[in-house]
Amino acid sequence: MNHTTHNAIANFIWNIADDVLRDVYVRGKYRDVILPMTVLRRLDCLLEPTKDEVLKHYRKLEEGNFGDQAVAQQLPRKSGYVFYNKSEFTLKRLLDFPGQIRANFENYLDGFSDNVQEIISKFKFRNQLETLEESNRLFSLIDKFVSNQINLSSEPVKNEAGEIIYEGLTNLDMGSVFEELIRRFNEENNEEAGEHFTPRDIIQLMVNLIFLPIEEQIQSGTYLVYDDACGSGGMLTESEAFIQELTEKTGKKVKIELYGQEVNPETYAICKSDMLIKGRDPEKIRFASTISNDYFSELQFDFMLANPPYGKSWSVDQDAIFDGKKKEVKDPRFAVEHPGLPSGEKLNLLPRSSDGQLLFLVNMLSKMKESTTLGSRIAIVHNGSALFTGDAGSGESNIRRWIIENDWLECIIGLPLNMFYNTGIATYIWVLSNRKPEHRKGKVQLIDATEWYGKLRKNLGKKNCELTQGDIKRITETFLAFEETDKSKLFDNEDFGFQKITVERPLRLTFQVTPERVKLFQEKAQPKLYPILGTLKDVFGGEIHKDFNRVKQVLEKALKVDEIKLTKSEIKLIYDSFTEKDETAEPVIKKKTKEGIIYEPDSELRDTESVPLKENIEDYFTCEVLPHVPDAWIDYDKIVRGYEISFTKYFYQFKPLRSLEEIAADILALEAATEGVLHQIVSE
Q1: Banded model confidence at residue 673, pLDDT cuts 50, 70, 90
Q2: Which residues contact 284 (CB under 8 A, 6 or more apart)?
Q3: Fewer CB atoms inside 10 A, N or C side of the chain?
Q4: Quick count: other Cβ atoms within 10 Å of Cβ 633?
Q5: Whole-angstrom Cα distance, residue 440 to residue 408?
Q6: Are 494 and 230 in contact (CB under 8 A)?
Q7: What are the backbone dihedrals phi and psi of residue 470, each rounded to the nearest 5 degrees, phi first?
Q8: Could you give the CA distance from residue 669 to residue 673 in angstroms, rounded to a whole number?
Q9: DSSP 644
Q10: What is the pLDDT, as a whole number, of residue 278?
Q11: Rounded distance, CA 359 to CA 477, Å?
């Protein structure tokens, strides 16, 4: 069936909304009725040929009291599909009883199998019946959908002469019609829909990046495609269509199994409906949060694509991830073994609870195939925070470290701004694989495609531009070429890594017994400690003592002579009361070892430095730190490895500022141009 016919059917259904729902619903709510009704009419058409046989067999099962399990097992065999309807009604038969339209329609809905019931429930379609009945629109709505002016059946409609009036709709054709309706509703209601709908130009680029590099390696067989934030299912269906087209060229026969998970009820219902309409297994689309409920934990996938939500909190999922008592990560997806860690320690892959987008990528990486030649390929969309947010040792940085040190990251493509319906921020496509070709091993490609786009004639929400076919081809070819250009940069994996070192400086204290400090001590100390003040004055007088190490020795000796015993907290109170920091004082010694003296660090002077992985820490410290703070040292126990990708830095092009002469010339020219106008205004 051609695109014109698809559009004609979509136009007819689209017009039903204006004809029937206007003045009853606002335009943004038309989808709440039209989408579920489109699904129901398609299923109704498919079930019509076997309706009588299904009812006949259902009555036998009821009479024999075989129970619901027998019904659920046997009726699909009679209907010829994975779904059925055991109600006496079809949509057309409902019109024979206009006076009982709502009651009969509810009976019709109740007759569907459980897999369709879930779709109806997630659409919340039953909530619309009262509005439709009160406005007297339910009958006309059904009447429009069973009109003989369109055919949503898989069988062609013929006239009396046997000529085909309307072609039958294959499952793929019906899916295309349904997707067109979804697209139009998304354009009508961009603010909401943009969160769950990825523009087709972006999806086309993603499938190019996933499939074209291994086009020649795909063999006949079964391949599993997965989207862990599947929304309305566009990435899944586009992936299937693309790989089928690729393999047809080479004569390969492939079977594609589509899997997805979605947490939004309506978009889940849309996706599952689309799978049902296309004759796919709807049970492979699951409803739940991917983060807290991994329905496909036992599966591995060949190809994975996703556009997860950005900046969305995952705090509601934490109970499922953490062991409540031990506060440890119990989900094996998010705490992994990794080379370079101490024995028994795992790398924590949990980002800030305010933004869970990277968790969807971690979930995908946990499902890569290890036993096949092709392994797994992944394309996922992230915003800029996934590139650089999080310091060394944070969940975000650990995720980047895990990915890059496993050599899974092939490429990141910077997209133009305003590419999505609900956001104008910078977005990036990450391409990953656990079977990098030889020339890509140890390397990461960055592509700046921010200026490759076409402007839309009319904005669609925030989306004011698109990737043209030429842009998609250009980006794909740049990716496949893997060459250094002004828009394509090649880096070693280590270029994105750094060692975060902690630079310590010694604590330097002076000690002095003054009236002000005596008063401070008395305010904090127990009265039983007041006699110690006499010892302090006798031993130290009122002078400033700049060697705190000597002060400690003298005080301890004096206390021993006077047989005064103090607790650690009491001694600390003395030191806190009569000392202050002074950069001219001697450094405070923490302890002496065979290797040398270890000084007490001053936490207020503590600093950190990020040393690129390709640089030697000691050399960096000697050149960049010691010339400025000669008494500093590195705390080697606190060194942490981190990764960040400063995308814009790598493509930054310096634009020289205009000279003062040029600016002055422009100002003088402007003054000259306005002088005559000002004179004319004053004269008038």
Answers
A1: confident
A2: 257, 258, 259, 260, 275
A3: C
A4: 17
A5: 10
A6: no
A7: -65, -40
A8: 6
A9: -
A10: 79
A11: 30
Q: Does the reported pTM lie above 0.90? A: no
84 Cβ contact partners less than 8 Å away, ≥ 6 residues apart: 47, 54, 75, 76, 78, 112, 113
Q: Which two tokens stand for residue 183?
A: 């697209």
Q: Two tokens at 356?
A: 């869970």
- For residue 602, give every residue at least 6 positions away whose Cβ sits within 8 Å of its Cβ, in sequence order, or none: 504, 505, 506, 507, 508, 581
pLDDT of residue 193: 42
Helix axes 114-123, 31-47, angle to 10 degrees: 160
Could you report the per-residue pLDDT of 72-99, keeping only the tens digit for each? 899 999 998 889 999 999 999 999 999 9
Q: Which of 360, 178, 193, 122 is nearest to 261 (CA)?
A: 360
The reported pLDDT for the residue numbered 445 is 98
Distance CA 215, CA 245 (A): 11
From 205, 209, 197, select the one nearest 452 (Cα to Cα): 205
- Per-residue buried b or exposed e for 433-454, using 16+ beta carbons within 10 Å of the residue's own CB: bbbbeeebeebbbbbbbbebbe
The separation between the first and the last C-alpha atoms of the chain, rounded to the nearest angstrom, is 73
CA pair distance 422, 194, nearest whole angstrom: 5
| Chain mean position to CA 602 | 41
Two tokens at 374? Answer: 């092709």
CB atoms within 10 A of CB 651: 16
- Distant-in-sequence, close-in-space partners of 428: CB < 8 Å, separation ≥ 6: 381, 382, 383, 384, 386, 387, 412, 413, 414, 415, 647
Torsion sign, CA atoms 411, 417, 422, 425: positive
DSSP-based three-state secondary structure for 57? helix
Chain segment 536-578, per-residue pLDDT in tens: 998 999 999 999 999 999 999 998 888 888 899 999 999 999 9
Q: What angle do CA 127, 33, 456 make, to 5 degrees?
A: 135
Which residue do the tokens 């009361």 mark?
Answer: 577
pLDDT of residue 194: 45
Distance, in Å, from the CA atom of 310 to the CA atom of 289, rounded to the nearest integer, reads: 15
Instruction: Give 682's pLDDT tier (boundaries 50, 70, 90).
Output: low
- The answer to whether the Cα torsion of 9, 36, 268, 110 is positive or negative is negative
Q: Which two tokens stand for residue 198?
A: 């990825």
Alpha-carbon distance of 621 to 624, in angstroms, equals 5
CA dist 303 and 434 (Å) reads 11
What does the pLDDT read at residue 177?
83
DSSP labels for 117-180?
Answer: HHHHHHHTGGGGHHHHHHTT-HHHHHHHHT-TT---SSSPEE-TTS-EEEPPPPHHHHHHHHHH
Please tell me which residue, 668 or 552, carries the higher pLDDT value: 552
Residue 252 CA to residue 221 CA, distance in Å, equals 8
Q: How far apart are CA 171 and CA 174, in angstroms?
A: 5
The whole-angstrom separation of Cα 446 and Cα 478 is 10
**For residue 29, which phi and psi values (nearest 5 degrees)?**
-105, 0
Tokens of 629: 């703070």
Q: Answer whether 256's CB lies under 8 Å from 302's CB.
A: no
Is the pLDDT higher at 185 or at 647?
A: 647
Model confidence at 326, pLDDT cuts 50, 70, 90, reads low
Q: Which two tokens stand for residue 82?
A: 């994975």
If we measure between CA atoms, which residue out of 306, 308, 332 comes closest to residue 320? Answer: 332
**In angstroms, what is the C-alpha Rg of the chain?**
36
Give the type of residue at 176. S
**Residue-averaged pLDDT of the chain:** 90
| Phi, psi dihedral angles at 314 (to 5 degrees) | -115, 20
Residue at token pair 């085909």? 164
Where do we find the tokens 């997860």? Answer: 308
